Amino acid sequence: MRRTKERAANLIPVDPTQKEEARSRTFVRQLILVAAEDPDIDHALICYLRFATERIRLAEVGDVTELDWIAFFSDLEERWRRVARVHTSDRSISDEEALGRTILRKTVDDGFCAHLAGQQTTAEYFTSGGYHRLADDERVWWHPSYSDKVKPQTRS
User: Fold this and answer.
1) 66-72 long-range contacts, Cβ below 8 Å, gap at least 24?
2) pTM value surpassing 0.85
3) Taking a C-beta distance cutoff of 8 angstroms, is the pair 92, 136 a contact?
4) pLDDT score, position 156
5) Could you tell me which of 39, 132, 91 has the C-alpha nearest to residue 124?
6) At 63, is the pLDDT very low, low, confident or very high (cuts 50, 70, 90)?
7) Alpha-carbon dihedral of residues 141, 147, 149, 154, nearest 10 degrees?
8) DSSP-assigned letters across all residues of 93-143
9) Percent of the chain scored above 90 by pLDDT?
10) Who has greater pLDDT, 155 or 65?
């Protein structure tokens, strides 16, 4: 059975109002912590919103199961752990913001496209948006000290 694939980015309009409202989300605060530039934050917002739209559409079509989504996010988390481990052990970057930007870039913007329901995804926004969804849920983070210093404060 052929599963429904994610749509091309140009087929998913982004509502400017939704984009503005999303600026207060946790994943955006995480980007600000690593001093991401405004164009990068705008791109992240667009990827996040397109991913959210496609996730709803794929759920409605009904050929991507909850177990498929669990595996998708689990694979993204595992890849993030590997990338973060490699770069946090690299002592050549002493500035935590710069290290966080490196982890972000190598995780989100490295051309990697994840698998979903046994198929390779092809749209960059989809994997990137999935990572921003995980960052919004505080399951991944970019700043190397986020889990020790910042994350506990966001829960109070």
Assistant:
1) 68/116, 68/117, 68/118, 69/116, 72/114, 72/115, 72/116, 72/117, 72/130
2) yes
3) no
4) 44
5) 132
6) confident
7) 80
8) ---HHHHHHHHHHHHHSSS---EETTEE---HHHHHHHHHHHHHTTSS-SS
9) 76
10) 65
* Rounded CA separation 99/155 (Å): 24
Residue identified by tokens 């999935």 is 130
Token couple for 4:
């429904």
| Residue 56 to residue 102: CA distance in whole angstroms | 31
Count CA within 13 A, CB hemisphere, residue 90: 15
For the record, the structure tokens of 35 come out as 């001093």
Q: What is the pLDDT of residue 151?
A: 59
Tokens matching residue 76: 């993204």
pLDDT tens-place string over residues 84-139: 999 888 777 678 999 999 999 999 988 899 999 999 999 999 999 999 999 999 99
Residue 59 vs residue 40, higher pLDDT: 40
Task: Please name which of 63, 51, 62 lies closest in space to residue 25, comparing C-alpha atoms.
Answer: 51
Neighbour-count burial of 153, counting CB atoms closer than 10 A to its CB (0-12 exposed, 13-18 middle, 19+ buried): exposed
Both tokens of 72, joined, read 């998708």
Q: What is d(CA 59, CA 66) in angstroms, rounded to the nearest whole number?
A: 9
